[in-house]
Automatic annotation (TrEMBL):
It catalyses: ATP + H2O = ADP + phosphate + H(+). Residues 1-59, 553-598 are annotated as: Disordered. Its EC number is 3.6.4.13. This is ATP-dependent RNA helicase. It comes from Homarus americanus. The lineage of its organism: Eukaryota, Metazoa, Ecdysozoa, Arthropoda, Crustacea. The keyword Repeat does not apply. Residues 554-565 have a biased composition (Acidic residues). Residues 298-454 form the Helicase C-terminal domain. Residues 47-59 have a biased composition (Basic and acidic residues). GO terms for molecular function: ATP binding; hydrolase activity; RNA binding; RNA helicase activity.
Length: 683
């Protein structure tokens, strides 16, 4: 027993030294029983896989369904998440363009769709975009899967907002990549986007500069306003973008004025596309609920018309289209000073992007407001409840007209559009509109209801110099716009009364437009060549030099940028050309009277040398008293006799001894002047 006890104690000592540290033994509690955790991800993925298989089977049956049979989105093979997003966004009944295009786009076919403005084209490509990524079970690790390209930033922002509403139940990541936003913020985030809504310029910048960005896995390309995206303005940018995308992608092209050019479709990568033109056989190219009219109005009366129109429609939402950014800036600033009785806003391409988005959101929220905008707001923007669209300046072509008036009468709502045409634009523009079966009614304006505000404008410009500068820029920008337009039958810059137009903007003096003066010279100079036929024209009111009230700055007026506006000649030093208006007599013989040659150009250097030879002291101010004697200011001029003698002598070089003598005498006068100032100060 004793031996056994000793062995047991030794064993305990050995085990205690090996298995536990020295010190008191800790109490060990019982572990709680844990149930195996349920993984909802596996069950959800199984349900999604089952749903995807069901959707694929239903898509094969789309070919047997007529578009007229689709009365709700539930009859289309759409996922539960997409249907819930549509229901929450109050999208229940599909439109015509949605019914006709979704049958093909959901099946993976390329689609080229055209429909009138406000017919629901945005939703027609967002739905197949979400369904394509969902059926392929796209994840953030797969990178970029769908690409939406729009011509304007505002349209991209609007599409992004619609995508957030409809696709809020999905797990995809989406990004808005447009110019004017922080590039560094986008730099590392674009690589994780599954859906990218962008403008061509910023997308190409990421493609060429950002090593994190890749577009190798793009499954779907969508071009909204495809005709403008593929136009000459974006041609080079779009060609570079399309070359970087995979060729086996699905392409969807949407626009109100769709292209059918085979070359454009090949560039976009369309493979046997289906054309869905909802209103191809419609009598008009604009919505039926839109009432269209036009008014004959001279250029110098447009400001008065706009003021009177806005004052009579203060309880409406009005969208006014202008030709240039400078006009939008001036009219926005001027109407804010005039206080028309409703909110006034301006939207143009030169504004900062965040400011543009803020103005767009504010105008959408307002019930009564007026927005002055360029064509940057003409395409795709879905601004709710626009009552009037006023085209203060004639659109470039019929396509621009259709997109402008499409901002009102959207989605079966009523709307009105009015077009201001000058007498020279009326006949040619109506002919162009007739080619698209667009009929506009002529309206005669009651002169008694027109409120002239020219005097108010002049008073405001006299108070605010910055507004006067904006008026000059708006004046020049509009005339340059007319000169650059291709359709010369509609746009005639020589038909504008420059003096009256300048007065309507509040300008007392008509700004000088050099390129227009040259244009007028060429126009009248090509009519005849001999001196005999030119004499009646030179003596009449219509001469080579147009009847303009201009600001002439003499020899130093050649720095104006308008000098080189329509000229392709080489630039030289600033030159003052003194053209003689006499033309050579082509019938004169060699023995006859000599031709009057044109004077040579006189440079600035020659003018300065001519002034120096006259020994005139330039840039000096002379003050005279009441008796007519010159008053010298001893604080600013030298009054000593030695200084006067030196000024009367015509000597070259520097005489140091004479200058030292002058400084001593001037120092004597300066001390006297300083002493007098101290006496006055101590009184």
């Amino acid at each position: 027993m004793e031996n056994k006890t000793e062995n047991d104690q030794g064993a305990q000592t050995k085990m205690s030294g090996l298995n536990r540290p020295n010190g008191p033994r800790k109490k060990q509690g019982f572990k709680k029983y844990q149930k195996p955790q349920f993984n909802p991800q596996k069950k959800r993925s199984a349900k999604e896989k089952e749903e995807v298989d069901n959707l694929e089977n239903r898509k094969t049956e789309l070919a047997n369904i007529s578009p007229e049979e689709i009365l709700s989105f539930a009859k289309l093979p759409l996922s539960r998440k997409t249907l819930k997003g549509l229901k929450d966004g109050s999208f229940t009944v599909p439109t015509k363009v949605q019914r006709q295009s979704l049958i093909f786009s959901l099946h993976g076919t390329d689609v080229v769709a055209a429909a009138k403005t406000g017919s629901g084209k945005t939703l027609a490509f967002i739905i197949p975009l979400l369904e394509m990524l969902y059926c392929k079970r796209w994840s953030p690790m797969d990178g970029l899967g769908a690409l939406v390209i729009t011509p304007t930033r505002e349209l991209a922002y609007q599409i992004f907002e619609v995508l957030k509403k409809v696709g809020k139940e999905h797990d995809f990541s989406a990004g808005l990549v447009i110019g004017g936003k922080d590039l560094k913020y986008e730099w590392n985030r674009v690589s994780t986007c599954n859906i990218m809504i962008c403008t061509p310029g910023r997308l190409l910048q990421h493609m060429t500069e950002n090593p994190e960005f890749t577009s190798d896995n793009v499954q779907m390309l969508i071009l909204d306003e495809a005709d403008q995206c593929l136009s000459m303005g974006f041609a080079d940018t779009m060609n570079c973008i399309l070359q970087e995308l995979p060729s086996d992608r699905q392409s969807l092209l949407f626009s109100a004025t769709q292209t059918r050019d085979v070359k454009d479709l090949i560039r976009a990568g369309c493979n046997n596309p289906v054309f869905c033109s909802v209103h191809e056989y419609s009598k008009t190219s604009t919505p039926k609920s839109l009432k269209e009219s036009y008014v004959i109005c001279d250029v110098h009366d447009k400001f008065t018309f706009l003021w009177s129109f806005i004052r009579h429609h203060r309880k409406h939402k009005i969208l006014v289209f202008l030709a240039t950014c400078k006009q939008v800036q001036f009219l926005n600033s001027m109407f804010c000073k005039l206080h028309p009785g409703l909110s006034v806003m301006g939207l143009h391409g030169s504004m900062h992007q965040l400011r543009r988005m803020a103005i767009y959101d504010e105008f959408c929220r307002k019930k009564c407001a007026v927005l002055f905008a360029t064509d940057v707001a003409a395409r795709g923007l879905d601004i709710p409840a626009v009552d009037w669209v006023v085209q203060a300046d004639c659109p470039e072509d019929v396509t621009a007209y259709i997109h402008r008036v499409g901002r009102t009468a959207r989605f079966f709502r009523n709307g009105e559009a009015i077009l201001l045409l000058t007498p020279s634009e009326e006949q040619a523009m109506l002919t162009c509109l007739g080619t698209k079966n667009i009929l506009v009614d002529k309206i005669d304006v009651d002169p008694a209801k027109m409120q002239s505000i020219n005097i108010k404008i002049e008073i405001i410009l006299s108070k605010y110099s910055n507004l006067k500068e904006e008026a000059v820029r708006a004046f020049k920008a509009y005339l340059k716009h007319l000169a650059l337009m291709k359709n010369k039958k509609v746009f005639d810059v020589t038909a504008v009364d420059l003096d009256a137009f300048a007065r309507s903007l509040g300008l007392a003096v008509t700004p000088r437009i050099r390129f227009l003066e040259k244009k007028l010279k060429q126009k009248f100079g090509q009519k005849s060549t001999t001196a005999d036929t030119l004499k009646p024209e030179l003596e009449s009111d219509v001469s080579f030099k147009p009847k303009l009230t201009t600001l002439d700055f003499g020899a130093d007026d050649s720095d104006d940028d308008d000098e080189e506006f329509l000229s392709s000649s080489k630039t030289q030093d600033s030159v003052i050309v003194e053209d003689s208006l006499e033309e050579p007599d082509l019938n004169a013989t060699q023995d006859g009277p000599k031709l009057n040659p044109k004077k040579k150009p006189v440079t600035k250097v020659a003018v300065i040398k001519k002034l120096l030879k006259k020994n005139l002291q330039l840039n000096q101010r002379v003050v005279f008293d009441d008796e007519g004697e010159m008053v010298l200011d001893p604080a600013k001029e030298q009054v000593s006799q030695a200084a006067r003698r030196l000024g009367e002598q015509e000597t070259s070089g520097i005489n140091i001894a004479r200058l030292q003598e002058i400084m001593k005498e001037e120092d004597h006068y300066d001390k006297k002047l300083h002493a007098e100032k101290l006496k006055e100060k101590n009184r």
